[in-house]
Amino acid sequence: MAAKYEQKDTILHVENLSIVYGEKVIISNIGFTEKNTVRPDKPQGQTIAFLGRSGRGKSTLFRALTGLEEPTTGMVLIPDFEKPIVNGQQPAKKVQEGDVGFVDQKYTLFRHKTIYQSLKYALRNVKISSEEKDEKIITYLKDWGLQTCRNQYPNELSGGQRQRTAILEQLLSSGLYMVLDEPFSGLDVGNIQNVKDAFRLINDSHELNTIIFSTHDIELAVELADSIYVLGYLKNDDGTLTQTGTILKHFDLKEMGLAWQHEFTADHLDITKQIKQIMLAS
Hints:
Blueprint: E1 6-21, E2 24-38, E3 46-51, H1 58-65, E4 73-79, E5 92-94, E6 101-103, H2 115-122, H3 130-143, H4 159-174, E7 177-180, H5 189-205, E8 210-214, H6 218-224, E9 227-235, E10 241-252, H7 266-280
Parallel strand pairs: 3-8, 3-9, 6-7, 7-8
Antiparallel strand pairs: 1-2, 1-4, 4-5, 9-10
Helix pairs in contact: 2-4, 4-5, 6-7
């Protein structure tokens, strides 16, 4: 049975985005809008997946979404929560570096800081008392299964522990938005489950929390995401492919009644097959 939900204010708006290096157009005509999803029975953050074959521009797009790359054309807009609501609308602003958390595949951490020290540093610009920061960190460490290694350094942690710490660092410092580039790459079944649990924790903690991730595992994307974008190369009139990445297809799993399901159904499998065909042809 499809879950009930409402779509409210815009949380992410990308308009006519392109990035060009020299004479090489990496991505172009990227445009989409995501809205705050509200469910009547629970907090529900957004989970947005980007799929596509290697070299189609996913990482470049992610750099633009996180403010690490200045677009050649277009813009990335997010709500400006530091400004008051005007006529019932939250003002928007262009995304800047630091507005959106970014976790790469290396899970880069401070080598000289323990988990606890790293998380305390991530909260350095948050305007709450030291006691409140300590309480917040302790809660996160407990919820994310890291309390027993709070005083350990990165070289003493497992890959899964490093990844969870890196996610928490970005979540604490950047707030509502989190971009993860290939978070499931190279993980065993146990650590894949840990990342899935991390997604759930992020989603459940605030309805505006928004996860944006890429993966080569189509089934995982269909299982976890409520919105999926497929990036690839368009076909020219002669059947050859362009060499510029763009959005080929959007699957709104909320609208299709396939989001937030506890089982992977035949309908989910059908979407997986459709996405695979699009990717193979692009």
